[in-house]
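tool=predict chain=A
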Amino acid sequence: MANSSIEWTEMTWNPTTGCNKISQGCKFCYAEVMSRRLQAMGVQKYKDNFELRTHDFELDTPYSWKKPRVVFVNSMSDLFHQEVPIDFIQKVFKVMRDNPQHVFQVLTKRADLLRYYDSEGWLQWSHNIWMGVSVEDNRVMERVDLLSQTGARVKFLSCEPLIGPLPNLNLQYIDWVIVGGESGRKPRPMKPEWVTEIKDQCLKADVPFFFKQWGGTNKKKAGRELEGQFWNEMPVLVNHL
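tool=predict ok
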């Protein structure tokens, strides 16, 4: 686990590590770059670089947290990667249900597997498991519908890195939307009108909107103000005392 600099969470917890690229949003994967750094530092969890691995010892970690926390699950992987056994996913879900004082934010690009596992009745949801999908452009819009069909109590979209417009988001069953531009050495541009268009759709649908960053080669300098203000809206943290 580690405290996180990601604006919409407090810390990260990685019961799995490693992944592979499946869509354009993965092109400059920050987790892959970070994995190489951690491997070079001799961190045991990343000895195989970015190969998919599960870590049973991490399943005990959340039980030791004394204060309620907002936790991004698998910032260095994808819990619904095809190589993660369903029984391990179920173990992770049990840990999350056993710790209702924490909010667990799970994010996937593999909405098809998420929907399949849920339709088979293999996933048991609780109020503190927030389920999200990444939606970087119109080519992966089907992820929104697949997420909407699950039994997750809180459903959210991460439009980051936003690399194209999303003019027709179906927000009927969505509880939260995050938007952010790409950062790094060769970031793809994000047009301001793409951001405001999503923000306006959220306002119309009464869905909390969170603007994470403009990104770019110097994301700190670019900042995260949109139309002269910060957008830090989030769903209500039920039982987060």
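The mean pLDDT is 95. The helical segments are 30-40, 86-98, 111-119, 142-148, 192-205, 219-222.
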